[in-house]
Amino acid sequence: MNQILLLKYGEIVLKGQNRKFFDECLMSRTRFLLKQLERKSSGNFTFEYAQSTLCIRAENGADIYAARELMKKVFGIVSVCTAYETEKDMDAISDVVKQNLHELIGNARTFKCEARRSDKLFPLNSPQICTEIGGIVLETMSNLSVDVHNPEAVVFIEIRDKSAFIHSGGEKGAGGMPNGTNGKALLLLSGGIDSPVAGYMIAKRGVSLDCVYFESPPYTSELAWQKVQMLAGKIALYSGRIRLYAVPVTEIQEEIYQKCDSEMTTILLRRFMMRLAEKVATEAAASAIITGESIGQVASQTMPSIVVIDNVCNIPVFRPCIGLDKEEIVSISRKIDTFGTSSLPYEDCCTVFTPRHPNIRPTIEEALAEEQKIDVDKLVENAFLNMKYINIQ
Ligand code: ATP
Ligand code: MG
Predict the structure, then answer these.
(1) pTM value > 0.90
(2) Ligand 1, closest atom to CA 321?
(3) How does pLDDT run across 93-103, given as a tens digit for each residue?
(4) From ligand 1's centre to the CA of 374, what distance in Å?
(5) What is the number of the ligand closest to the CA of 294?
(6) Which fold has domain 184-392?
(7) H or E element, residue 31
(8) 313-369: per-residue pLDDT in tens?
(9) Which residue has the least CA distance to atom 6 on ligand 1?
């Protein structure tokens, strides 16, 4: 009796002619993650795609539970199920059920059996399998009762072409589209709560990510940079490899602070960030920019502010959090495990020079007038020249 992972594909099963490309991207991500796991622990994994299910077998003591946790982060997979695999024989199936009943039923007080039989030559039909296995469960755990409408636990028996699978149902997978099936975008990653969530949401649709972080040394510290690296690492568990760029904006912030209207400083800095992001995107071969902005959240995210910021961009800007409340964003950040890291208290470059009374209704004309007071092109060029990057797996 061996344990096996059964992975169900999502939307990609609806793909027609280019289905193969989506399959390959999904397999390549799956293989990469399991190879990493093999390197860290003993054993190995084998793969087989059959009957719309990707089956992963743990061989030589490989850790199936660790593999399951990794597979729950693979985009393109809608359900992950740990099952027992045995011969297509009622005695063997009954033995597996008896030996693993506590795991299959948990603390439930009611249950039902559900059988699926793709091998129509199997001697028992689905209702007969359910009756026999249900009887064994009741014999073994006398405090249980059957509830076919609303059971607390379900024992599934699947009779497939080559073997039988027994399990108690799948867990929700990450959904979305496989990594790398939809181009690349550049995420503005700030160290706050919103931007990692925004990156995750776009990566979920199969978009590869690189990230850019704007830092203001010495106003921002090495700890803030490390925090951003940690966040990129957490996003990469879903999105795959990320190149994380860091661009210093100290000179830009000081120039704006000294020469421009204090009410406009945040908006002006944002416009610089977007200009720089576009240059980084070209360098990274990314065709869009992603931010964690949400309408009205702060002064720089009012509708007029977003219009003025967007005005300097020549490539699409995706803002997947735009219509979400903070609470909804926090709930996603908890789910993807970035909330704790995002909540670490290291300073952000924007907070360093935050004006007391930011202009919440700026216009493009006002921004252009302020930018006449500084050398925009030179400041952008200098910041870009001092960019550094690291690769995050
Ligand atoms: P918070 O949870 O504090 O709102 P945030 O990441 O959304 O965090 P905001 O000040 O609301 O921070 O900034 C809006 C968006 O602008 C961010 O989501 C991010 O995409 C981008 N951004 C802001 N500051 C930086 C920065 N220092 N480096 C990179 N991107 C930034
Ligand atoms: Mg925000």
Answers:
(1) yes
(2) 18
(3) 999 999 999 99
(4) 24
(5) 2
(6) Rossmann fold (3.40.50)
(7) helix 19-40
(8) 999 999 999 999 999 999 999 999 999 999 988 777 666 677 778 888 989 999 999
(9) 192
